[in-house]
Arf-GAP with dual PH domain-containing protein 1-like (Eleutherodactylus coqui), 359 residues
Amino acid sequence: MSGEQDWNKKSVRILSRKEGNTKCADCGEPDPQWASYTLGVFVCVTCCGIHRNLPEISKVKSLTMAKWEEDQIQFLDSHGNNAAKAKYEAHVPVYYYRPTYADCHVLREQWIRAKYERQQFMKKEGSDGLPGGVKEGILFKRGRDNGQYLARKFVLTEMDGTLKYFIKPDPEKMKHSNGLQITYVKDNRARNVFVYHNDGQEIVSWFNAIRAAQFHYMKVAFPTANDKEILSRLPQNFLKEGYMEKTGPKPTDTFKKRWFTLDHRRLMYFKDPLDAFAKGEVFLGSIENGYQVTTELVPNSYSNVWNYGISISTPERTYLFTCESEHEWESWLSVFKKVISIPMTVREYAVEAQFKHRS
Ligand SMILES: [Zn+2]
C-alpha cells in the first residue's frame, strides 16, 4: 500500500470517530464500518446493503478495505451523519416510526428510501395527523378460519378508535417480507389481524398511517399531554413472544405447547402464532397485589414435558409453564419478574378488574 493510501485510510478512520459518525446514520447501530461518499454518511453493513440498491443516490465503500480518494474524504469531512440528519430528517412527522438495527428489513429499507430517494422529510407537510385524515387501500388479509390471504379493502380514519394498538411488521412470523400484524383489544380481548402488501412502501405507509391516526386520537383524548408523552403511549413492541408449554388448572391436566405473547401486563396464549384470537389471557399484576413468579421443578411423572418450569401465581390461581431450553426459561423469567416488580397504574387496576370479572 502506498503512503498516500495509508494516510487516506487513517483520515477516514479519524472521521468515523467524529461525533455523530460513531453510529449508523440510518439505524443507529454502533461502530459503522461503511460510508456513502455521495451522501457523506457512515452506515452499518446492513444499511450499506440497502444503499447498494440505490446506486444513483448512494455509493458506498468499506472504511477499512476500500481505496479512498482525497476528494471523497473531503466530502465525508464536510458532511457526516449529523449534517445528513439535519438535512434528510428535518421534518420527520412526530408519529413516524424510525427503525433501529433490531428492526426488520422492510422497515429499514423504506426508511432509507424515504430519506434519500423520495426525500420525504426535507420539507414540512401539513399537520401531524394522518395526511388527509383518511387512508384506504387493498391489503391481503389472512382468513380467520382457513388461513388463506384474500384481498380486502381497509379504511383508516383519523378518528378511528378501533385500532387501539398496533405492532410493527412481523415478516418472520408471517413468512412474508411485507407482513404486518395488527393487534387491538376489543371487549378486553385481543384480536390479531395479519395483512401484507406486495409493495414494501405500501405496508410501511400503512404502518405509519395507523401511528398517525393513533397519535391524532390520543391528542384529542389527552389535550394537555405533550407530544413526547403521547409518543410514549403509542404501541410498543411486545415484551416477548415464543413457545412454552402450559398445563390446565387440574393436577391431571396435560401440558400443551402454546405460542405466548406478552404485551405489557397481558400474557396471551395461542394454539398457532397466527391465530386471530387467544385461547386464553393471563393478567400480570404487581408483587404488592399478590402476583408471584417462581421457578418450578417439573415433576418427572409427566411425560414428554419440557423441563424448565415457571409458575405464576395470581390472586385467583397458579399457572405452570415449561420452557424448552434454559435460555428461553431465563429470558421469560426475567421479563415476568420485571413486569410484576412495577407498581400498577390506575388504568391497569381497571384492566385487572375486567380480567377478574371475566373469569
Ligand atoms: Zn444501519
Q: What stands out?
A: The CA atoms of residues 95 and 211 lie 6 Å apart.
